[in-house]
Specification:
Elements lengths: L2 H6 L17 H13 L20 H15 L4 E3 L31 E3 L4 H14 L3 E4 L18 E4 L7 E5 L4 E4 L5 H10 L5 E2 L10 H6 L15 E7 L5 E3 L33 E8 L1 E2 L4 E8 L5 H13 L7 E5 H6 L17 H9 L8 E8 L2 H15 L6 E2 L10 H9 L17 E6 L1 E4 L2 H18 L5 E5 L3 E11 L3 H20 L3 E2 L7 H7 L2 H17 L42
Parallel strand pairs: 2-4, 3-4
Antiparallel strand pairs: 1-2, 5-6, 6-10, 7-11, 8-9, 8-10, 12-14, 12-15, 13-14, 13-18, 16-19, 17-19, 17-20, 18-19
């Protein structure tokens, strides 16, 4: 497909494709696609490093092994990665590489993609990988954009794309408020399935953009924005294919004939679910989730605050309100640069100079927008019948207005396409698409995140904000911070937006991030989630007691995956045959992601 054909093709619908868009968002998706391709200047990729092969296996042997797998799965479900790399965009994303690459496109690529249709076929793939000592890299849908997308950590791994053929909503229980899903079910698809059954008393919880896999987001410990926003805390029961091919069910699922797999997550004995989140210890093929009851009403609200230095006081106000559940959902305190960028226009509409965009330019642009000029904007939601909401909202209003210049935004004065309404829908469990419009800030826009966790304290928020601001100015990267406030902790999510076709900007963003990770760790702040190329560094910051936690993870890895075939390097966990061979990426690695082969089989 040519560039012009790709740009002009229509967005696939959910009714046509498991990764498609629901009908109610089709026009918004079309507009978003136009915005993406308007700013794209990246030439069509040429392949300079083909064929891509797994380490330690020659071309002839690998192709013979793939042919054998094709006989088991069907030849149409085994595909070599030997064609030009096409980036697509969010709703038409590739599984051949990271479409938002922060290193060279051809570094983190699979040798082939395979498409199982069942847990049994996943087992067959795992047994095949062990037989030939070929690394595999499972994805649910591959939309973990900003964290590596569909890319494997080890070049030449065989990508196991679960979503294409394993995308069923297996059960929705309207009495227990639970569901059971396969990996290819997106938040869009789950929402539509609940609505199709007429279960208006059930809500789902959704992240900022709804096209990702519910399972993929949950096992990576992603978040949403209702009171059920901690997705991992809301899961109940897993089915997992282990690296040696056995299948287990966790919690009550281990009891034959059980009727509580999705209602009681623990079962009996050690709670094993945790080792399958942010790890490479197995492939999750089914997962249960709890669903939120319709609260009987809801009301979004937003406040703006004028001064940068209001941050300390604001966080101190937010903490007791959040712990006391007056502020009920995982809400956001966002910086004004995001208010501007989320409109989807390129940076050049506001500023053409070098370095970070000047503060006066930012505030001049904000003053012309419906939300008005500000430095911080808080987006929240109150739930329940009107009298309950009014009680909580009056407390919130009194507290927020202790900040001089605080202003409650009047929703009736906002146009229908204002970002406020996207946050309104997300906090009501309705999947959206609008969030990623800020990626258009740069041509060939891509993003990668700095995501430290801290206490909900003004001093901590200020320290992290100043740290991020200093490094962004040093590397010439515009600052997009947002504080996402949980019950007793706070995530600072800083999105670094860059031109992925510009090696210099990729390098600057990666260098900035590597400094930020170390700076934050030195102050006691750790990342909760990170990109593939930063996983070794982030894992290394969790080094208490001479790296005791990583040593424990490596013992688990060696026991569960003796041949080291399952997603080597994910979250910094390397199989024995990769260790001490230069695979770990550090500040000095540059764009080189690969080590010195693997140790021979014992």
């Amino acid at each position: 497909m040519s560039f012009s054909e790709e740009a002009q093709s229509d967005v696939p619908l959910l009714s046509e494709k498991h990764s498609g868009i629901p009908e109610y968002l089709l026009e918004k998706a079309r507009e978003a696609k136009v915005g993406v391709f308007e700013t794209r200047t990246k030439p069509k990729a040429t392949r300079n490093k083909v064929p891509v092969l797994p380490h330690g296996i020659d071309e002839q042997a690998f192709f013979a092994a793939l042919s054998e797998l094709g006989k088991q799965l069907g030849e149409e479900n085994v595909e070599r990665n030997d064609k030009p790399l096409r980036d697509g965009w969010y709703m038409e994303h590739p599984n051949t590489h990271d479409m938002m690459a922060v290193v060279d496109d051809e570094e983190l690529v699979p040798s082939a993609m395979v498409y199982p249709a069942s847990t049994e076929e996943v087992q067959q793939i795992v047994l095949w990988a062990n037989k030939y000592q070929i690394p595999i890299s499972p994805i649910s849908m591959g939309r973990n954009l900003g964290y590596g997308g569909a890319a494997p950590r080890v070049r030449g791994s065989v990508l196991v794309d679960l979503g294409r053929r394993m995308n069923k909503v297996l059960d929705i229980n309207p009495d227990d408020y639970t569901c059971l899903l396969e990996p290819g079910v997106s938040f869009f698809a789950l929402y539509e399935a609940v609505k199709a059954k007429g279960y208006d008393h059930l809500w789902i919880d959704v992240p900022d953009v709804g096209g990702g896999s519910v399972i993929g987001n949950t096992v990576d410990r992603g978040v949403g924005y209702t009171p059920y926003g901690d997705h991992w805390a809301c899961h109940a029961g897993l089915e997992v294919v282990l690296p040696t091919g056995e299948v287990i069910r966790t919690g009550m699922g281990a009891l034959p004939g059980n009727n509580t797999w999705q209602t009681f997550p623990y079962g009996f004995g050690p709670y094993s679910d945790g080792i399958f989140s942010q790890s490479n210890f197995g492939i999750v093929t089914k997962m249960g989730m709890t669903l939120m009851p319709n609260p009987g009403g809801y009301e979004s609200f937003s406040y703006t605050f004028q001064k940068e230095e209001d941050l300390d006081q604001l966080i101190e106000i937010i903490r007791p309100l959040r712990i006391g559940n007056i502020l009920e959902n995982v809400a956001q305190l966002r910086h004004v640069t995001q208010t501007i960028a989320v409109r989807g226009r390129p940076r050049t509409d506001y500023y053409n100079g070098e370095g970070t965009i000047p503060v006066d330019v930012v505030h001049a642009a904000a003053a012309s927008l419906p939300m008005g000029d500000h430095t911080w904007a808080y987006y929240g939601m109150s739930y329940g019948p009107p009298h309950i909401r009014q009680y909580k909202l009056s407390i919130i209003d009194a507290e927020f207005k202790k900040v001089p210049g605080a202003r409650r935004v009047d929703p009736s004065a906002l146009p229908p396409d204002e970002y406020f309404w996207a946050r309104d829908r997300i906090a009501a469990g309705v999947p959206e698409l609008q969030e990623l419009r800020w990626v258009n800030w740069m041509p060939n826009g891509a993003h990668i995140a700095f995501s430290p966790v801290s206490p909900i304290r003004g001093a901590d928020a200020t320290r992290l904000y100043e740290l991020a601001k200093r490094r962004h100015e040093e590397f010439g990267v515009d600052l997009f911070p947002a504080f996402c406030v949980g019950l007793r902790e706070m995530h600072l999510i800083v999105e670094l937006v860059y031109d992925r076709a510009d090696p210099g900007r990729r390098r600057a963003v990666l260098d900035c991030l590597r400094h930020l990770v170390d700076d934050a760790a030195a102050c006691g702040y750790g990342e909760y989630r990170t990109h593939l190329v930063l996983m070794d560094q982030v894992a290394g910051t969790y080094s208490w007691n001479d790296g005791a936690l990583m040593k424990f993870h490596e013992k688990l890895k060696d026991a569960l995956d003796p041949n080291g075939i399952m997603a080597p390097g994910r979250c910094g966990i390397w199989p024995k045959k990769y260790r001490n061979r230069g695979w770990e990426m550090t500040k000095d690695s540059g764009e080189n992601t690969q080590g010195d082969g693997v140790a021979p089989s014992e």
